[in-house]
Amino acid sequence: MDPMTPAAADDPIDTLAEAPAAAETLGLAATVPPRPGLRGEVLSAAVASRPPGRPVAPAEVISPSEALRRTLLELVALVESLTAGDATRPAIEGWSVAGLLGHLGAIEAYFGAVLGWWPQEGPIEDEYDHLAATLPAVLEAEVMPFDQLRGRWVEQVSRVVARLDSLASREAERVRFHGFDFSVRSLLIVRTFEVWTHTEDLCRAIGRPVLELDTSRLRLMTDAAVAALPIGMLLTGQAHRGRSVRIVLEGDGGGAWVQALELGAAPGEPEVTLVADAVDFCRVAARRMSPAALRCTVLGDAALATAVMHAAAVFAA
């Protein structure tokens, strides 16, 4: 600028120089303590204004069989990158990584037998217990050479993946899995939940970042986790007939639901609202995060909210 030219009224140097003083004056003039309860009222109004349903943002719609295929193939890629040293690392339930692969292989064999793809190999001890039923396979895997174990497990998963397309016409069919009655569609989503959970278990065991779920799979999983709340209430021995909850899960795979807590009942006016992250809610459902650790905003009946969060943990794998 020519030193003899007067500064323009909108000169950025003068504007920036005056900004702090102006902001301080405005801040002092507008400082008014909020009245008690305002935060809760604002949150309640904001949540209530969001109708049940999904965000408008587009997402690929996939079938439950495609969800399971993607999740299994992600796990295969992870397992194929493991070393023999990784195999001995502690994972879950007192098992090593190798033992966890033994568990997963036994479940794939059982899953295929339930669907009639191959005969069940001998009787299953403790069939109704998801963990105990696979214990012989876990113990065998713990002492097996890792390359042999990995090859056998990948072959087992490949047998499942190759047949998943055949389930498109069978989604309404009913099957029994660990003593529970499922539609094939529901069972595929439950299995997606399980394989995703164990993929995260393996990542944590070997010190790698967990894999990010795509929106399409997460939407299937959050729908299932919310819809399973009445079953969770029964399994945890909590009777809340005629009561409903509003669940708002944040993130691309989230949404808003009004869910009855009584099995088979129509939803009514919700007595409590829970707002949480969609992926973390799924981790609570899989018992990989405690309800107490979930960052959750509760509006309404706090005791009912606690019961709902404990009932959410029905996808334990």
Structural features:
Four Helix Bundle (Hemerythrin (Met), subunit A), 317 residues, 4-stranded mixed beta sheet, globular, single chain, 49% helix, disordered N terminus, Nonspecific Lipid-transfer Protein, Chain A
Outline the structure in words:
The protein is of the alpha+beta class and 317 residues long. It has helices at residues 12-30, 38-48, 64-80, 84-87, 97-114, 135-143, 146-161, 184-205, 215-227, 229-235, 278-285, 302-311, and strands spanning 174-177, 180-183, 244-250, 255-260, 272-277, 296-300. It folds into 2 domains: 64-168 and 175-208, Four Helix Bundle (Hemerythrin (Met), subunit A) (Up-down Bundle), CATH 1.20.120; 218-311, 2-Layer Sandwich (Nonspecific Lipid-transfer Protein, Chain A), CATH 3.30.1050.10. Helix content is 49%, strand content 10%. The protein is globular and about 65 Å long. A hairpin with a 4-residue loop joins β3 (244-250) and β4. Mean pLDDT is 86; it is low at 1-17 and 19-31. α3 (64-80) packs antiparallel against α7 (146-161), α5 (97-114) packs parallel to α7 (146-161) and α10 crosses α12.
